Amino acid sequence: MRTFTHPITLHAASRDETEVVDALVDTGATCTAIPSPVLERLGIVRYRLVRLRLADGRLEEWALGRVMVELNGETDEIHRVFADPDGPAVIGAVTLEVFLPSVDPVQQRLVPVEGYSL
Fold first, then answer.
1. pTM for this entry
2. What residue segments make up the domains of the chain, in order of their start?
3. What does each C-alpha distance from 10 to 5, 16, 22, 68 come to in angstroms?
């Protein structure tokens, strides 16, 4: 699958401030990851640790934080991983499930779709 980036807007925890980040769309990543300096600048608080298996096979513990985000004009609170300061921002599968876009790797975009229920 071809990779591409998509803008995601992060909202500060306690003030009227936002930051737009171009994030790699990665359906193979469970969590959305944002470099820790960005989340710290916005006042996002770490609230628990999760164990994540990295692409190179290493197992690491990373901190999660809750943050309001906008994606394709929709806003919701999601959990974010405080990623390495020099690492890329990544939109993972959990965020994609929350916002219900389909990944179009040919046109390199996220397309809104209907969700399914029982």
1. 0.90
2. 5-112
3. 15, 11, 11, 6
What are the pLDDT tens digits along the chain (118 aa)? 568 999 999 999 888 999 999 999 998 899 999 999 999 999 999 999 999 998 899 999 999 999 999 999 999 999 999 999 999 999 999 999 999 998 998 899 999 888 888 7
Q: What number of other Cβ atoms are within 10 A of residue 99's Cβ?
A: 20
Q: Which two three-digit tokens encode residue 22?
A: 């171009």
Domain 5-112 classification at class level: mainly beta
Cα radius of gyration (the chain) = 14
CA distances from residue 48 to 23, 25, 32, 41, 44 in whole angstroms, order as listed: 23, 24, 15, 19, 12
Q: Are strands 90-91 and 18-25 parallel, antiparallel or unpaired?
A: parallel
